[in-house]
Amino acid sequence: MQSPHHLRCEYFTNPIGLDETKPRLSWLIRDERRGAKQSAYQVQVAGDVSLLQSEQPDLWDSGNVESDQTSHVEYAGKKLTSTQRAVWRVRVWDHNGQPSAWSDAASWEMGLLKTSDWKAQWLGVPDASIIADPEDDSLIASPILGRAFDIKKNITRARLYITARGLYVAHLNNIRVGDDLLTPGWTHYGKRIRYQAYDVTDLLHSGDNDILVTLGTGWCVGHVAWRQKIYDNKPWLLAQLHVEFEDGKTLTIASDESWQQATGPIRFSDMLMGERYDANTPTPRIGQGDWGPVETQPMDKGVELVAGVGPRVRKTLEIKPIGVTARPDGVFIFDMGQNMVGHLRLNVTAPRGTTVQLRHAEMLSPDGSLYTENLRKAKQTDCYTCRGDAQGETWEPSFTFHGFRYVELTGLPTGVSPTLDTVTGIVVHSDMPHTGQFECSHKLVNQLQHNIEWGQRGNYLEVPTDCPQRDERLGWMADAQVFAPTGAYNFETAAFITKWMVDVRDAQHDDGGYTDFAPEPMFKEPGTPKFPPHGAPAWADAGVIVPWAIYEFFGDKRILERHYVSMKRYLDFLSERSTDFIYIGQDSNNYGDWLNHNANTANDLIGTAYFARCADLLSRSALALGKKSDARKYASLFKKVKAAFQRRFVTPDGRLVSDTQTAYALALNFNLLPDALLPRSAEFLAHDVQHGRFGRYPTNNRQPSITTGFVGCSLINPALSDNGSNDLAYKLLLNEKYPSWLMPVVHGATTIWERWDGWTEKKGFQNPGMNSFNHYSLGAVGQWLYSHVAGLRIDPEHPGFARAIIQPQPGQGLTHASFTYDSLHGRYRSAWKIEGDTLHIDVEIPANTGATIVLPTADAGRVKESGQPIDKAAGLRPLSPDDEGRVMLDAVAGSYRFRVQPFEVG
Ligand code: BGC
């Protein structure tokens, strides 16, 4: 076995500024041999790499631990203190007891763990010095705060700990600190604020130094949740620079009254409205220009400062426009070729004082002009006033982001036309490892997958949002829960969701109800117990469903542990608010099967189905955490709610009282039906999909049609495939006529739309009051593409892909499909291809794991692996066939090539 690699701590590579005092370590092992296993590991941790080299791990030596664990190995050494640096390495033993060499060293570093570590004060601009935008006085210029300082000695280590109520970008000696955007991110600022820590050792030097920090309004002060200045009425900075010298002495430069403030070139910034930049107002240098005193505010002990290690929002891609059109009215419209989220980099040559305006939108109107109606109050407009540099000038906004495919550019001098090099699209989102790659033989399905991924890129931006363009952009809970599994296949979402679950808890009501979205910026006003809205079926349930998804995908028990009490409180809430175990939701906010196609499902059916689901998942969470009596308690609650569901909603012949696709999909996926009625209910679902409900769907649409909204869209295809109608699930996927997943694709969509009919050939655009073209929810079908079509599934007995179930389910319309997934244990792959009467299946199972392989045939005699009958193939052990009689195998780690012949789809 080669030495372990990809060493990470809390999902990050060499993180700085952690506040987990028992950080969890993980690594990957490399071994191509079939059945390769780690039989033991040893982790050593020291304060310095030289101590590791000399075999003196002064912080922790795990010794030889007999275990196959390679992720979430909890640090169990000496107590870690603020700013402490730890360097670590690991070696492993293989299944024959042979040790690997030590890995390369990796590191982590603690942040400021105690409030008393913070010497800084909050700094802002006195109200009288705040400069409002002349056109809209609610938008304010970005202040710059800074100071100079002198360094006389040789520096060994320097760290900047920094945050803002608002947003910040820091420069040390004119060099930008880090490459993160929109920091410190969004939390419930009244309760907790994240700070970031940066290694700035190389940005400082002996002699004169300066620090300058520009502030933006962001979520804290700017427009969010249909209001403005919700958390604060102006931005504030908190910063602390720690410098260590060769002689062991230290220097701390903390934000305090010695700092000064001035106004720079950003004339206003706002997440929804955009940014205005005047390049003729230069960034002031300390000691020159118009600086004034700062306003200070002591730290508020009631607000927790927490480590904001990541994942950080960053630029992840650049894209060039595919076209630019001159319009008769003199404006130019760029087509970026992709509905994207982020901003543009502008590159212009124009006389001094020229103001170039960029308006961003997702669509064009039929006359080719920019379609902005669906943005509601969000202006998404950036303006840049040129310096007039003869060689041209380049600019990017700092504190805003937009959702757009098209950009209208105005303001260039008459006669000057932009080129495709005038703008570059900067794609911005929470930077997570891209783990899943799905590909198949159907061009439109590949584009659908592309759209799913781009929907996630645009909406996993600091929190999982509903949409990135209109005046909303909130962490809507149902959207997040229906998409969570799809999202966790495509990107490593564990750290992103871990942060968001804290937002979810911060928003949770005293009565245990989770809110509709999180963070929930509308402070609960005293005496209004129902405000903000909470307890909505399928929305509030994200509080239980999402952490469970993270546990299943990443084996992360800590998220369950941290969230456990909160989940219990939610189950109490549901129990108290239900009548005879039927939960209908509350009056104020009940969204039903949101945006379904003429097929409403009763609120109490949805509410009760989710109540049962949450009881079931809490029981399983309790079991995972070793809380056996709770596991029994919630299992029994699940049974009671299930019985109530059957009494109220299931007729003796297996029909459900809300006779909708969503009702059946919920009942079948959440295990709410009596066994005897399963086949009948599944038939009713298939009949609805095939023929429409009461024949009332459009007659031009004889193809199987989807009518679910957000609630049913992730569940319907698994319900069909798992209950004897895999062929129909494929037909549903491949329908190109409205309502369907592929209709938008046929019409050029590059992201998932909010509504099935966001735009139709017949009616054009839907009501602009709610019509986003970048909403990931309906893309939740992705989960089925990966788990059923390609066939890589979680093994519930072995969360985190410590083992997997590989069960490709080919169907009519595709001739090949493959999914490659980089799990915490390494790369899995499931790929199939039909050639003539032969089905080829290639499987990769990473070292130290295994899989149960279920083949789409009942005849083991038709199957060969690398040319061998399966009972002769190394690493495979035949198991009893599954319920459908399909061939089942136990496989050890390794690569396998199966051939099934003859094979017929269907
Ligand atoms: C959002 C949704 C959300 C819904 C709740 C909409 O405005 O965009 O995605 O779940 O409200 O009703």
Question: What is this structure, in a nutshell?
Answer:
This protein has 906 residues and is α+β, with helices and mostly antiparallel strands.
Write a structural description.
The chain has 16 helices and 50 strands. Strands 22, 23, 27, 28, 29, 30, 33, 34, 35 and 36 form a 10-stranded mixed β-sheet that branches. Strands 37, 42, 43, 44, 45, 46, 47, 48, 49 and 50 form a 10-stranded mixed β-sheet that branches. It starts with a strand and ends in a 6-residue tail after the last strand. The relative contact order is 0.08. The model has no long low-confidence stretch (mean pLDDT about 95). Beta-D-glucopyranose (BGC) binds near residues 472, 476 and 594.
Per-chain topology:
Elements: E1 5-9, E2 16-18, E3 24-28, E4 38-46, H1 49-53, E5 60-61, E6 65-66, E7 73-74, E8 85-94, E9 106-110, E10 122-124, E11 143-151, E12 155-165, E13 167-172, E14 175-176, E15 192-199, E16 207-216, H2 218-221, E17 223-224, E18 227-228, E19 236-245, E20 250-254, E21 260-263, E22 266-270, E23 274-278, E24 292-293, E25 295-297, E26 304-307, E27 313-319, E28 323-326, E29 332-348, E30 355-361, E31 363-364, E32 370-371, E33 381-385, E34 393-395, E35 402-410, E36 423-430, E37 436-440, H3 443-459, E38 460-461, E39 463-464, H4 477-490, H5 494-507, H6 542-554, H7 557-577, H8 603-624, H9 628-649, H10 661-669, H11 678-691, H12 710-713, H13 716-722, H14 726-734, H15 742-746, E40 759-760, E41 764-765, H16 782-790, E42 792-794, E43 804-806, E44 816-823, E45 826-835, E46 838-854, E47 863-865, E48 868-869, E49 876-879, E50 888-900
Helix pairs in contact: 4-6, 4-16, 5-6, 6-7, 7-8, 8-9, 10-11, 10-13, 13-14
Bound molecules: beta-D-glucopyranose.
Beta-D-glucopyranose (BGC) binds at residues 466-467, 472, 476, 478-479, 591, 594, 770, 775.
